[in-house]
UniProtKB/TrEMBL annotation:
InterPro entries: Haemerythrin_Fe_BS, Hemerythrin, Hemerythrin-like, Hemerythrin-like_sf, Hemerythrin_metal-bd. SUPFAM superfamilies: Hemerythrin-like (SSF47188). GO terms for molecular function: metal ion binding; oxygen carrier activity. It comes from Methylobacter tundripaludum (strain ATCC BAA-1195 / DSM 17260 / SV96). Gene3D superfamilies: Hemerythrin-like. This is Hemerythrin-like metal-binding protein. Residues 19-121 form the Hemerythrin-like domain. Pfam families: Hemerythrin.
Length: 132
């Protein structure tokens, strides 16, 4: 069962690349969630965690590049939000691979909650600037 489902009404930014990348991000998060809550091997969970975090880092870099190119006034605050999540994810990733943490339903809910807040409050705000 999907943890999070992309819909234009809830998550659409009207910025083509961002919406496309968010859909992929959601798919990767759902796959991690399914593995973690479905009793998959730790190695499979770790590989998916690494894939998700790598994708998130690349997506954030793409957003930030586009914001800078358009002179988006909210860039600094937006980048701070990105850096905060990367820090959380990087810490989890390191602990997971050291055998000191698990990826479980709570981790999925944490990331979902962040996306539920970040996309409407930060990503939708850049639509006009990035579409200009």
């Amino acid at each position: 069962m999907a943890l999070i489902t992309w819909t234009a009404g809830q998550y659409g930014t009207n910025v083509g690349f961002a919406d496309d990348e968010h859909k992929i991000l959601f798919d990767k998060l759902n796959k991690l969630y399914d593995l973690a809550t479905g009793g998959a091997e730790r190695s499979a969970i770790g590989a998916q965690l690494d894939d998700l975090i790598s994708y998130v880092v690349d997506h954030f870099a793409h957003e930030e590049k586009e914001m800078l190119a358009k002179g988006y006034a909210g860039y600094d605050r937006h980048k701070e939000e990105h850096e905060a999540l990367i820090g959380i994810c990087g810490g989890l990733q390191a602990k997971f691979h050291a055998g000191q943490a698990e990826v479980d339903e709570g981790v999925g809910q944490l990331v979902k909650g962040w996306l539920d807040s970040h996309i409407p409050n930060f990503d939708m705000a850049y639509a006009d600037a990035l579409n200009s």
